[in-house]
Amino acid sequence: MTTPATLGPRSGWWQDAVIYQVYPRSFADGDGDGVGDLAGLQEHLPYIAALGVNGIWITPFQPSPQIDQGYDVSDYCGVDPLFGTMEQFDDLLDAAHGLGLRIILDVVPNHCSSEHPLFQAALAAGPGSPERGMFHFEDGHNAGTPPNNWQSVFGGAAWSRANPGSDTDRQWYLHLFSPEQPDWNWRNPAVGDYFEDVLRFWLDKGVDGLRIDVAHALFKAEGLPDTASTGTVVNGLRSNPQVSDQEEVHEVYRRWRRLTDAYTPERILVGEVNLEPDRAARYTRPDEMHQAFAFAFVKLDWDAAAWAAVGTELEAARRVHGAPPTWALENHDITRSVTRFGGGERGVSRARAGLLTILGLPGGAYIYQGQELNLPDVEVPLGARADPMWARGGVSRDGARVPLPWTTVPDGSYGFSPSSDADPWLPVPASWGTHSVEAHRQDPQSTLHFVRETLRLRGQLIEKEIFTPGDACEWRVEENGLLICARGNQVLVAVAMGDKPCRLPAGDVLLASAPLTPEGLLPPDSAAWILQS
Ligand code: NOJ
């Protein structure tokens, strides 16, 4: 086990950490099969370190049939050969720590793969067996309909027959996502014990944190009652209160917090808690998780009033529960911000301003791979779409998952794969070279350079204690759609969200996402950090 070299065992490191999210199959392909892997990630660790981030969150690389790109895990304590070996992971962890980068891994405790040995054992053991008690197996209704009316997030019923051909086995099993992702039954204590071993396995190896997938959905309402909700299904499952935010789930995170607290240096839990700010903040009470993504913020359009309202709500929740929000504008499940904010040059300016904004706010922040390159969402050709949500629900998240372009060389993948013979697992657009790392390196005004500069300045402000994680945030909207977040007593984060240049409040402009106008105004679609005198 190694300790991050440059950061040392500083406790509370996570409170203002910036973490870079790696979606391994799309980051860099080391072995030339068209799918990114651990070797590719290791090769480019210096690139990530040079950004100035504090760590990396790696989405699942454990053995999996890859129905949901790894979020269908068949062995929680292994490495899928598609991505490499356990030895390579150990080397990667050491190399990352040597560069001062923490490593956060994904844990998927709501469901596993239908290929998981315990689910296979449950299928074989039959109704009423302890093996089936690890999952939600229930009898259907007489007419052969599922046990209740819950819908899967990916579309269709949330139940599938255990043994479709059988006359004797009339049971169904629950899957909030695809049928290949059966839900664990968290009311069975054996499930909690199983996951404690999984967590220990990775923590003992020396990983610095765990990102908890669908953290608010582990417990289902007692008795699995029908839902009255017919609301739109979103990844956060909010349309079905019977599967979301049940009080019992907090005991799981208290147990996991006791577990992580026993490790030195400090390890963290970060939750995918896709709930409104006041509910999500309850998952980061002092004895639960360290961080939960501020999802209410992730979904916002380019609208000053909406940002101020959600920012104010998050601040109110922080005051009650203590932990600052954890900021993000992108991840592998949502449309990239350049596209969400209008696309083209305008989308790029806004995405860059958005990044400067979240990096100026108190709390941790996550940057999704490619955000530093202004990657737009891609309209992936229909036949190439790989997201199970596309096949079942007609919504594709593939556009945010296209392999990263490393060079300007039109070799089929712009340097993602070492060989031009390999077809990248999702096709890359012909324009991808202009977004590549190489193109950004050559342009001193590029967003890649801008992100590095922003993180360098952020580090200095943290060192001087001008930025402290406990800073309060006061949000307001001024004339011409100028959004202001007054952070602590000294810094203002200003974002011009209207269509006219804005006069800035008094103070020194420390950094801006675009040059000010000759009159010293902040142009539309840009942001600035201002140090007040
Ligand atoms: C959230 C993950 O980010 C997403 O990619 C996945 O499909 C679902 N959880 C199910 O695991």
Q: What labels describe this entry?
A:
5-stranded antiparallel beta sheet; 14 helices; 8-stranded parallel beta sheet; binds 1-deoxynojirimycin; Oligo-1,6-glucosidase, domain 2; TIM Barrel; single chain; 533 residues; 3 domains; alpha/beta; globular; Immunoglobulin-like
Structure description:
This protein is of the alpha/beta class and 533 residues long. The chain has 3 domains: 13-112 and 189-449, TIM Barrel, CATH 3.20.20; 117-174, Oligo-1,6-glucosidase, domain 2 (Alpha-Beta Complex), CATH 3.90.400.10; 472-531, Immunoglobulin-like (Sandwich). Helix content is 26%, strand content 13%. The chain has 14 helices and 16 strands. The strands form 3 sheets. An 8-stranded parallel beta sheet has the order 9-8-7-3-2-1-11-10. Strand 2, helix 3 and strand 3 (102-107) form a beta-alpha-beta unit. It is globular. The relative contact order is 0.11. Residues 4-9 have low confidence and may be disordered. 1-deoxynojirimycin binds at residues 68, 71, 108, 177, 213-214, 235, 272, 332-333.
What is the helix content? 25-40%
Enter the CATH topology name of the largest domain.
Answer: TIM Barrel
- Tell me the strand order in the biggest sheet: 9-8-7-3-2-1-11-10
CATH superfamily of the largest domain: Glycosidases
The quaternary state of the protein chains shown equals single chain
- Total discrete domains: 3
The tally of strands reads: 16
CATH class category of the largest domain: Alpha Beta
- Which CATH-level-2 architecture of the largest domain? Alpha-Beta Barrel
- Major pleated sheet: 8 strands, parallel
Provide mean pLDDT, rounded. 94
Order of helices and strands: EHHEHEHEEEHEHEHEHHEHHEHHHEEEEE
Strand content: 5-15%
| Helix vs. strand class | alpha/beta
Q: How many alpha or pi helices? A: 14
What is the end-to-end distance?
46 Å
Low-confidence spans: 4-9
Gyration radius from CA atoms, angstroms: 23 Å
Molecular shape? globular
The molecules bound to the chains, other than polymers, are: 1-deoxynojirimycin
